[in-house]
Each structure stands twice: as C-alpha cells, then as structure tokens.
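Running this now, will post back.
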Amino acid sequence: MNAVSPDLDRRFRNAAADEGLLDAAYDFVDSPVGPLLVAASKRGVCRISYDADPERELDHLARDFGVRVLRSAKPIDPARRELDEYFEGTRREFDLPLDVALLADFNRRVLRELARVPYGEVVTYGELAARSARPRAARAVGMVMNRNPLPIILPCHRVIGANGKLTGYAGGLERKETLLRLEGAIL
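Update: finished.
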C-alpha cells in the first residue's frame, strides 16, 4: 500500500477548503501558552482550545458545525498570523471574523462587551455583568467566561474578581497571568 505524500495531502486539504467543502477546518497553533487548537467555520473562527483532546474537539466541531471537519492549515492561517502578532506584542486588537452564532443571546451579549475591554486593561465579573445589562449576573458572566469558545481573541483573561484577584480561567490561572503580563496589565 502506498502512502500519500505530504505535498499531495496538503494540496487535498487546501482544495477541500478552497472549494468550500468543509463545515469546519482546524489546525494547531504554537504559542507561549502552549499549543492551541484553532478552528474556523465558514462564518469565521469558531473555537480556540487549550490542551485540546483532538478527538473530543473534533466530535464537538462535527456536532456543532457539521460532519465535514478536516485539519487544514489554510483556513486557519489568518488566525495564526494574528495570534502570532499578538504574542509578539505587535497586535492589540483582532480583526478576524468570528462565529458565535450557536451561543445563547446572553452569552453573545457578554462576549460582545468583553471584546470591548481594551488590551492591557481588566474588568471585574460584576462590571462586565453591568455592561451586559444584567448587573446582578456576575456569576452567570463567570459561567460565560468559563465556556468562552474563543479565549485570547475574546479576552476572558482580562476579567478578574471583585477583590482584584485572578480567579477562574478555563486555561488555568498560570496562562491567565501570562496573558495579562504580556499585555502589561499586571507587573
């Protein structure tokens, strides 16, 4: 049995993406906070995962976006470029199309307000709840942050506890601290 050459494999994956045959594409992006699984649907970047179990993530992508899921670098390249620039310190805002269509209205509203928190600044869960027109929903905001499908791009690392402490981060507090240090939000 003949193996497929890496060049033919790459061309196949690129052609599938170019022809719009994928419901979601994914690839892995190296970063200072570890490898990131980055996925994009036809609408935009739809998932960034730390410490991803690829099999589980692919199941989630297939369930959420459709069964035609393939590892293909080309659709992920714009996100890879912007994430690299962010980690190099040359990008403060992301200009990528995002796909959060599957999220509940409240979650989308919270993430929209989260996206407005400037680079290098922090906000409390309570402040973010108030900005989302639900001032008593700090715990609900915490749940949205915990389930944020697009960490880093939708910067849940910029949300801190009312006491000013770094609390809860799906990627781990060490990563949260690293991202905030990168942005100069903490010394």
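The chain has two domains: 6-88, 105-183. More later if anyone needs it.
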